[in-house]
Amino acid sequence: MSETPWHKKLIGGFKRTSDKLGENLTGLFTKSALDEDTLDEIEEALIVSDLGPGMAGRVRERLADGRYERGIDEAGIRQLVAEEVEKVLAPVARPLEVEAFPRPQVILVIGVNGSGKTTTIAKLAHLFLEQDYGVMLAAGDTFRAAAIGQLKVWAERIGVPIVSGPEGGDSAGIVWDAVKQATATGIDVLIVDTAGRLQNKRELMDELAKIRRVLGRLNPAAPHDVVLVLDATTGQNALSQIEIFKEVAGVTGLVMTKLDGTARGGVLVAAAEKFGLPIHAIGVGETLDDLRPFDPKELAGAIAGTER
């Protein structure tokens, strides 16, 4: 496999995850045929590696059905895991495509505060700029002055226009202005930051519904995407966030960040298997270039530790 800068980041980003898998599998291998107890232990090791019970169950089934009279070593298990992970990731690895007509394509970005939402918006904008699309940002998270300020800094840094208002302002009004400006200036992609508080689900749902109504009056197809940003370091909590945000916001796709700072990268696989939502990109670092769409085979190898 090519040693591109992204490939190196991917392997480095998932090192803790693949190391954790190795630690959990240590001591489980025998030179004799696999018995039920060993299969149980291997299945449990995969579950505690955050790969999810579905993935663990399928690997166990393959081991049980296979001809392993002479047992199997760690490398063999990792290869099986890589193959099964690739099967799960292949249908959901879908980059965000700019297809809206008329323009702009409106992307609502949601996620709890602290998930890396604002930074992810900047990285997505950077990704679109690399593809020669015109990009505009809208600071729709008016609940926090810090969110507005941070998005303004990013907009200036990457050189894209931004529509914003005061703290406590009307999010839907900002989105209205942004769509009008984006349409008038021929912008291809409008990325909208939204409030990230889940303490009051009803309030958040009402706010997002208002934004949708406003968008619908300007472009019945908008929003074209509702992207949930997840922090991989929260592990299984990320799965409950998907559940909640699907209910309140109609999530259409996922971006998972901070995969380089955790041993819980397996939760990406659990999310793919449980929800089947498109995973548009993953983040494995702090720089603008560290958020990218992924190749399922390459990512499966990084998670399982078969690629070095």
TrEMBL record:
Catalyzed reactions: GTP + H2O = GDP + phosphate + H(+)
Domain AAA+ ATPase: 103-254
Chief location category: membrane
All residue ranges annotated as the Signal recognition particle SRP54 helical bundle domain in the record: 10-89
KW Methyltransferase (keyword) present: no
Membrane topology per record: Peripheral membrane protein
Protein residues bound to GTP: 111-118, 193-197, 257-260
Coiled-coil stretches: none
Record keyword Membrane present: yes
Keywords: Cell membrane, Cytoplasm, GTP-binding, Hydrolase, Membrane, Nucleotide-binding, Receptor
InterPro entries: AAA+_ATPase (IPR003593), P-loop_NTPase (IPR027417), Signal_recog_particl_SRP54_hlx (IPR013822), SR_rcpt_FtsY (IPR004390), SRP/SRP_N (IPR036225), SRP54_GTPase_dom (IPR000897), SRP54_N_sf (IPR042101)
Highest taxon in the source lineage: Bacteria
Enzyme Commission code(s) on record: 3.6.5.4
SRP54-type proteins GTP-binding domain ranges (all copies): 104-305
SMART domains noted in UniProt: AAA (SM00382), SRP54 (SM00962), SRP54_N (SM00963)
Protein function: Involved in targeting and insertion of nascent membrane proteins into the cytoplasmic membrane. Acts as a receptor for the complex formed by the signal recognition particle (SRP) and the ribosome-nascent chain (RNC). Interaction with SRP-RNC leads to the transfer of the RNC complex to the Sec translocase for insertion into the membrane, the hydrolysis of GTP by both Ffh and FtsY, and the dissociation of the SRP-FtsY complex into the individual components.
Quaternary structure, from the entry: Part of the signal recognition particle protein translocation system, which is composed of SRP and FtsY. SRP is a ribonucleoprotein composed of Ffh and a 4.5S RNA molecule.
Family per record: Belongs to the GTP-binding SRP family. FtsY subfamily.
NCBIfam families: ftsY
Name assigned to this protein: Signal recognition particle receptor FtsY
